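Escalated from tier 1: NAP holo job.
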Amino acid sequence: MLWYNPSELSFRFERNIKKLRMKRKEEISNRIKIGIFGFGKTGRIVADEFFKEDHFRLEWVVRRTHKDHHKYATRLLGHEVDGAPIYSVDEVSPSFFQKNPVDIIVDFASARAHEHYMPAADCGIRIISAISKYKEKDLVDLKKLADKTAVLYSPNITLGVNFLLVASQILQKIAPHADIEIVEEHFRGKKEVSGTAFKIAETLGLDKDKHVNSIRVGGIVGRHEIIFGLPNQTIRLVHESINRAAFGQGAIFAARWLVDAPAGMYSMENIIADMFKRNIPVY
Ligand SMILES: NC(=O)c1ccc[n+]([C@@H]2O[C@H](COP(=O)([O-])OP(=O)(O)OC[C@H]3O[C@@H](n4cnc5c(N)ncnc54)[C@H](OP(=O)(O)O)[C@@H]3O)[C@@H](O)[C@H]2O)c1
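Tier 2 regenerated the structure:
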């Protein structure tokens, strides 16, 4: 049997604690650093999702106004930690990204926020834009950013919807004569037709005015169904949103992939299609 004297035991204990602390420090410094533009309905949930993931470190949040100026986003999200100060977009000067370096910017702000990103792209900071609607000119600007850094643009960033887009194209290739209809269901107050439904129609080469069917009832967060009608069978692909955290999970998925990507323009569909290709079993 081995016997240690108390001073040796305490020395060993101290050494192990030191090792654990160093490991933790190393883990934290290796985390992917995230800066978020937008702290509205979606941005704050996305910020929370990144904060809760061990692989990421939420560095800061930028919003349009001076609301909650320099307060910690983590505190506002209900965590007992001082992290991720909130800046107003007025403070985002060209040197902002050198003073507050991050690996990736995640944009859930507005179609104008990207106007601040060129100095970030010059520093090699990658960009995820989740803005739902851009004008043609904004897309040209994003492409200019993509000459310098990796940019992922995804007007619908949930994994499920992007999976639906890829899977439906495969099904259409296998059954080119199927009748296809798209049904989108949302809460009663949603006025416009779902942009995602239009995107599905466009991807499948369908006339969006004829093949997109909208239903507005109660509090449905969002449901998209693609119906493939064949003479003797019907195939239905359905995606249902449960809550906005799905947008954060999509952004996290994108960030893990984008962090090692070379300069260029990417979409969630690209990533998922690539995964499909690599993972389809060979019979
Ligand atoms: N891709 C997807 O899957 C997906 C999903 C959901 C939402 N979105 C998109 O995400 C964006 C935000 O949606 P939301 O519902 O969260 O809107 P929201 O509640 O109106 O929040 C917008 C946020 O962006 C900030 N902001 C606006 N302009 C800015 C600028 N130029 N620079 C920095 N911050 C700016 C606002 O700051 P203040 O709070 O100071 O006003 C606010 O915090 C929209 O474009 C929406 O379409 C995309």
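The chain has eleven helices and eleven strands.
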